[in-house]
From TrEMBL:
Keyword Transport carried by entry: no
One annotated GO molecular function: protein-cysteine S-palmitoyltransferase activity
Catalytic activity: L-cysteinyl-[protein] + hexadecanoyl-CoA = S-hexadecanoyl-L-cysteinyl-[protein] + CoA
Annotated Pfam families: DHHC
Protein name: Palmitoyltransferase
Gene Ontology annotations of biological process type: protein targeting to membrane
Protein's organism: Geospiza fortis (Medium ground-finch)
C-alpha cells in the first residue's frame, strides 16, 4: 500500500533552509528571521502541548538542523582551508556519538507492562485486595516497594530506610489499569505509565524515564560539545582575529560575500539552539544532583510542598535527596538491574 507520511515532518525540511538563506541576504533580515524563529517554535510547542498532541515536528527540526548545519560547515567553511582534517574528524565523531546517544534515548524509557485483559476493577475491589495482605496483597506490594527503595534509590551507594518517604505512595492509574510504583507516572501523550518518569521530551518525541535518562543526558552533552566546537571553528574561519565571544557580535566582513553571510547566520542559529539546550541540560544536572524529576518538581510546586533553590532553578522535594554523591550514584545505576515487576503482577 501507499506509505503514509506524517505532515509535521515536512515544514522543517522546507522552511529552515529558506529562512536561513533569506537571513543571509542582509543583516536586518537575519535579525528578523533569527528573532522570529524561536518565537514561532515556542508558539507551536504551546499549541501542541495545550492540545495534548504528539508531533514529529520538533524531532524533524532537530535532526534536520544537525544535518543541514553539518552540510553548510563542509560546503562553506572547510573549503576555506583554515580547518584541519583532524578537526573535521573530531566534529564528525561528536555528531555520530550524539546521534548514537539519541538513538538509545529514543528506545523504551521504562514503560510499565499493561496487565492482560486491561479490565478496570472497582475501587471497592481494590480496597478489598489491600485488606487481604496476609496472602499476596498489600504485603507483596510493600515488599516490592521496600526492595525498590533500598536497591533502586541508593543501590550500593548509601543506606536508606526500607520504608518509602513520607507522602509517597503507589497510586492506581485509571488509564493503564495498574498500580504504579513509587516515582512512576502516566504520560498523556504516550498513553503509558513510565518508571521514574521525568518528562515527555518533544525533541525526541518520547518520554524520559528510568531506562533512557542516562542516554538523554549523554545526547544533550554530546550536542553541547559538538555545537560549541563547530561554532568555534566557523567563527575562527570567518572572523579571523577577534576572540570567540567578540566575533559572535562583531565580525567585520561577515556579509562581504554570500558564503560568509550564510555561515555566520548558521552560527547564530546554532548559538540560539545551543543556549536553549544548555538551559535544559543545566536544569537536568541540577535535578539529578538533588534526585528530583521534572514531574516531581511540577507536582511539588502544584501542592506547595517543595522548596525553591538556586533562584528557582531547582525544586527540592526532600523525598529522595540523599546528598550529591548518593544522588549521582543512584542516577548512574539507573537501568543497571532488571526493572521491578509491576505491582499489578504481584497482586
Amino acid at each position: 500500500g501507499a506509505v503514509k507520511i506524517n505532515v509535521s515532518l515536512v515544514p522543517p525540511l522546507v522552511l529552515l533552509p529558506v529562512f536561513l538563506h533569506v537571513a543571509a541576504l542582509h543583516f536586518l533580515l537575519g535579525l528578523i528571521v533569527l528573532t522570529s524563529l524561536p518565537v514561532v517554535v515556542l508558539w507551536y510547542y504551546y499549541l501542541t502541548h495545550r492540545r495534548k498532541e504528539r508531533t514529529l515536528f520538533f524531532l524533524s527540526l532537530g535532526l534536520f538542523s544537525l544535518g543541514y548545519m553539518y552540510y553548510v560547515f563542509l560546503r562553506e567553511v572547510v573549503p576555506r582551508g583554515h580547518v584541519e582534517h583532524s578537526q573535521v574528524v573530531t566534529l564528525t565523531c561528536g555528531l555520530i556519538l550524539m546521534l548514537a546517544a539519541l538513538s538509545r534515548a529514543k528506545k523504551d524509557p521504562g514503560y510499565l507492562p499493561i496487565p492482560a485483559g486491561n479490565e478496570k476493577p472497582s475501587h471497592q475491589g481494590l480496597h478489598n485486595k489491600s485488606i487481604r495482605g496476609s496472602s499476596s496483597g498489600l504485603h507483596g506490594i510493600s515488599g516490592a516497594a521496600s526492595s525498590r527503595a533500598v536497591n533502586g534509590e541508593a543501590k550500593g551507594y548509601c543506606r536508606m530506610s526500607a520504608e518509602q518517604p513520607a507522602g509517597v505512595k503507589k497510586d492506581w492509574c485509571t488509564k493503564c489499569q495498574l498500580v504504579r510504583p513509587a516515582r512512576a507516572g502516566h504520560c498523556r501523550l504516550c498513553g503509558r505509565c513510565v518508571r521514574r518518569l521525568d518528562h515527555h521530551c518533544v525533541w525526541i518525541n518520547s518520554c524520559v524515564g528510568e531506562q533512557n535518562h542516562q542516554a538523554f543526558i549523554l545526547a544533550l552533552s554530546f550536542f553541547m560539545l559538538t555545537s560549541v566546537y563547530g561554532i568555534t571553528l566557523t567563527l575562527h574561519t570567518i572572523c579571523r582575529g577577534p576572540s570567540l565571544f567578540v566575533a559572535l557580535f562583531y565580525c567585520p566582513g561577515a556579509y562581504s560575500d554570500y558564503s560568509s553571510a550564510l555561515s555566520f547566520t548558521c552560527v547564530w542559529y546554532c548559538a540560539i539552539v545551543t543556549a536553549g539546550m544548555g538551559y535544559i541540560l543545566l536544569i537536568q544536572l541540577l535535578n539529578i544532583s538533588y534526585n528530583v524529576t521534572e514531574r516531581e518538581a511540577r507536582l511539588a510546586l502544584r501542592d506547595n510542598t517543595g522548596h525553591r533553590l538556586l533562584g528557582g532553578l531547582v525544586i527540592d522535594t526532600g523525598q529522595y535527596n540523599r546528598g550529591l554523591l548518593c544522588n549521582w550514584g543512584h542516577f548512574l545505576s539507573l537501568g543497571a538491574s532488571p526493572p521491578q515487576r509491576s505491582a499489578e503482577d504481584i497482586v
